[in-house]
Amino acid sequence: MQQPKKPKRKELSIFLFFVLFSSLMWLLIKLSDQYNITTEIKVNFENIPAEKFMPLPHEYTLKTTVTSTGFNLLRFYTTRKVKRTITIALDQTPYRQAETNLYYIGTQQVRDKVADLMHVSINAVLFPENEIYFTLETLKSKIVPVSIKYDFRYRKQYGIYGEPNWEPKEIEIFGSENVIDTLQFIYTKKIEKDDLYENFETDVLLDFRNDLQSETKSVRLSVEVERFTESSVTVPIEQVTQQKLRLFPDHVTINYNVAMRDFRRIDSKLFQVRVAMSDLQSLEPFLKLEVTPPANVHLIRYEPEQVEYLILQ
Q1: What is the DSSP letter of 51?
Q2: What CATH class is the domain 140-223?
Q3: 8 Å CB contact between 254 and 268
Q4: Largest Cα–Cα distance of the chain, in whole Å?
Q5: Distance (Å, rounded) from C-alpha 23 to C-alpha 39?
Q6: Per-residue pLDDT, 273
Q7: Are 233 and 254 in contact (CB under 8 A)?
Q8: Residues in the chain with pLDDT < 70?
Q9: Burial 283-313 (b: 16+ CB within 10 A, else e)
Q10: Which fold has domain 229-312?
Q11: What is the pLDDT of residues 146-191, one digit of tens each?
Q12: Residue burial 119-129, b: 16+ Cβ < 10 Å; e: rest
């Protein structure tokens, strides 16, 4: 049986190779050429002044004409649309007011950003419009106190000395009038610590709602931690009523925790023990006791918690 001839297949392969090669060369030549194109680029604004509010979305569109090679244009158009964006920081870019709530910046101020995005020189970027307009609304301001949200757990025999301290205690916030008028506090993000046994300082972020903003983003928190020891003291019960009473017993034993640094200065005169006036007025058979310890002393228990009494004539 006669074998089929192969020369025609070889000629076809050579022909297809040269077609592909010439097409590739043509494409490379075309991509090397200069082109003028008009396209739209998204403009995103950030670092908006705290006293201003930009209605969502914060994105605007900028029309630009660019002269560039086909290679650069191909790179740009194959980039994801979300990345075809320039960002303008309003705290670093001068802008002017056109009318109430309407502001603008010159397009020449962003030529370098567009040039970087398109991978061209600044001279290759032109804008059909001279300004980029955007809306900023003025917000109402208010000074509000800061409240710390925390959960501290201490090593055995250790505890907080005094109260947590933070600065600033108050901040200026900005928001719409109906939100600002009802706001009483600004809370921090919750801070949690385990096994505390020494002093510490840290920055704590403020927890803003989406409709609030401030130039202050965090507060500096400091906490004193001390080693505590247990002790006890016997304290007479004060009589603060106009009626004369005889109490049974007339003293109370208090067990408490005190910081080691304060141990020697604590005595019975620093504690205040009184009967609950509400029980006396309602003529209850027993009067509950109210114990007020000195600063930085933590009550453990006291005995008795209530006493019998006689009203003397």
Answers
A1: T
A2: mainly beta
A3: no
A4: 143
A5: 28
A6: 95
A7: yes
A8: 1-12, 14-15, 17-19, 21-33, 35, 56-58, 70-83, 313
A9: eeeebebebebeebbeeeebeeeebebeeee
A10: RNA Polymerase Alpha Subunit; Chain A, domain 2 (2.170.120)
A11: 999 999 999 999 999 999 999 999 999 988 877 888 889 999 999 9
A12: ebeeebbebee
262 phi and psi angles, rounded to 5 deg: -105, 0
CA 140 – CA 51 distance, rounded (Å): 7
Amino acid occupying residue 37? I
Domain boundaries for CATH 2.170.120.30 within the chain: 229-312
**The pLDDT of residue 77:** 63
* pLDDT computed for residue 78 by the predictor: 64
Name the CATH topology of 32-138. Answer: RNA Polymerase Alpha Subunit; Chain A, domain 2 (2.170.120)
User: Tokens 């061209």 — which residue?
Assistant: 120
Please give the Cα distance from 310 to 313 (Å, whole number).
10
Model-wide pTM > 0.85 = no
Residue among 134, 132, 142 at smallest CA distance from 51: 142
